[in-house]
């Protein structure tokens, strides 16, 4: 899909963060989206194929999309900070995106480790859905792709979150089995939805086209 693409560095809490911002060319920009990549210690980068498909699906629906590398990944400065620093990196990237497109509603999307990051970020300020303070409330959404239920940890941030959330999961996700994710999503407050994609594994092998199509519908 033809698009405008810009490579840039953002100012992050631990130094510069390598980033890409992409705007669709065939339609007006109607939403801003931040996409977070999987675990940096297991090869995760903003060029991960699932992250790429998420970004493309969002662009297909008219979103300007910002991807970035967490601290210590490729040309981003700093070093791995056990999820806490990566959350702050995402917060800095979102602040940049909101500052550049202040009047657009926005979506936070993330894959695997990135899905936990965007849920923590998007649920941090409770029921109003406003993550970065602005003069007026701006609609926010969260898309959690490949949520890893096997990564145990504090999930209390999910319990009272009413920012609209969509969980998108492979039917054969070895790190987030459907039989573990379904009861978790069922226990969460509305608004929420669970979308299952027929695929072979956590990385949506055999289901990437359907993943991209479903992401485009969620904007």
Structure, described:
This protein is an alpha/beta fold and 219 residues long. The chain has a single domain, classed as Alpha/Beta hydrolase fold, catalytic domain (Rossmann fold). It is built from five helices and eight strands. A hairpin with a 2-residue loop joins β1 and β2.
- For the biggest β-sheet, the strand order reads 1-2-4-3-5-6-7-8
Give the fraction of residues assigned to helices. 25-40%
Relevant CATH superfamily: Alpha/Beta hydrolase fold, catalytic domain
- Shape designation: globular
| Estimated radius of gyration | 16 Å
What is the CATH first-level class name? Answer: Alpha Beta
Main sheet specs: 8 strands, mixed
Number of strands: 8
Report the structural category.
Answer: alpha/beta
Stretches where pLDDT is under 50 for at least 5 consecutive residues are: 126-136
Question: In sequence order, what are the helices and strands, one letter per element?
Answer: EEEHEHEHEEHEH
Tally of individual helices: 5
Please write out the topology.
Blueprint: E1 3-12, E2 15-24, E3 31-36, H1 49-60, E4 63-68, H2 84-100, E5 106-111, H3 113-122, E6 140-145, E7 165-170, H4 178-186, E8 192-197, H5 208-217
Parallel strand pairs: 3-4, 3-5, 5-6, 6-7, 7-8
Antiparallel strand pairs: 1-2, 2-4
Helix pairs in contact: 1-5, 2-3
